[in-house]
Amino acid sequence: MGSEKDARFLPNQQRLPASFYQQEDVVLMSKALLGKLLVTQFNGIRTAGKIVETEAYRGSDDKACHAYNNRYTERTKVMYEAGGVAYVYLIYGIHHLFNVVTGKAGEAKAVLIRALEPIEGIDVMLQRRNMPQAATRLTAGPGVLSKALGIDKSYTGHSLLAPDSLIWLEDQSPISEDQIIASPRVGVAYAAECALWNWRFRIKDSKWSSKAK
DNA sequence: CACGGGATCGTCT
DNA sequence: GACGATCCCGTGT
Predict the structure, then answer these.
(1) Is the minimum distance from the CB of A63 to strand C below 7 Å?
(2) Taking all atoms of strand B, which protein residues have CB closer than 7 Å?
(3) Rounded distance, CA A138 to CA A63, Å?
(4) pTM of the model as a whole
């Protein structure tokens, strides 16, 4: 549970402000999100993990992005909001993937959170995942981390900024460039030349990121 | 450890 | 009506 002595993160940090989310460059944003704390608090139960792996999705010019070519549907409309809301969608009929919407309104830029290092409420995460004890697979992967934090697609469009929101990010020390590994995005082979962009970012040597492909 | 396949359903064609 | 920004389990090595 509480880990005031845990040197891996700073406790009781401020929520990241709108100015953080609304930066222009979604690739820089993806790197800036590494190391930050992703927190949920449902029914007063707080669970949190340090972001160790991300992926950038840039909007209308990115064939791997749901908003490619300005596609605007019931599902994707949330991506067009100003940075600072959640974009959560269902994939393969089973998994709920959590993204942070970034940039200005109308741009449809988002960062997929791909893996966390569990920090707070690990016992609750284990219950949600139906696992007996902690293991890397608890939060390594975009589908499983959402399940561990209790996030599902009903939270798409949820504010990460509002004082009473149930999902937010807390500031932490930035990860330096030499501690970041860039590689191609996962599962987007259909996206032609965009599939080659090295827009997947991981904290070097973190054992908590999902497996390389 | 690598792989192959099944699960399962909202979304868009 | 097809398929996906995934995961888990079974099999073989």
Answers:
(1) no
(2) A 66, 71, 73-76, 89-90, 92-94, 153
(3) 30
(4) 0.95
